[in-house]
Amino acid sequence: MADPDDIRRRIAALLDAQWLAVLSTQHRGAPYASLVGFAAEPDLHRIYFATPETTRKFRNISEDPRVALLVDSRTHRESDFHQASAVTVVGTAAEVDKAADTAAVSLYLSRHPYLSDFLHAATTRLLRIDVKRYLLVENFQQVMELRIQP
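Above: the chain sequence. Below: its structure as tokens.
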């Protein structure tokens, strides 16, 4: 069995190495996936992403805050079948008050400074995923779980 601290380090390294993730939401039981830029807190308890309030993902989250986020290391080569890793983040999403939570805004912009105008637009919402658990898959089939305590 893998050491929880080692699993945490592997997950943090993967999240740190990637800028984009696939966000999964649902609407009345139908899945929906979209690409988002994200930033993770160092303790892995929360992950942030931004989206315009007019998007399907924002509407879906407003109706059902349960989400999954997939981050992976694929390089689009055959070796990915044996070397790529992926982490699925499971949690609930909620809107962040950008004016009140300056730490979240700073974290997001430190990761994506080129999205400053986008983030500060009146119609853009910053969302926080409160992580319940991570599922890390390595070597195409080795699955490790890390639960996050509130």
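Helices lie at 4-17, 56-63, 80-83, 102-111, 116-120.
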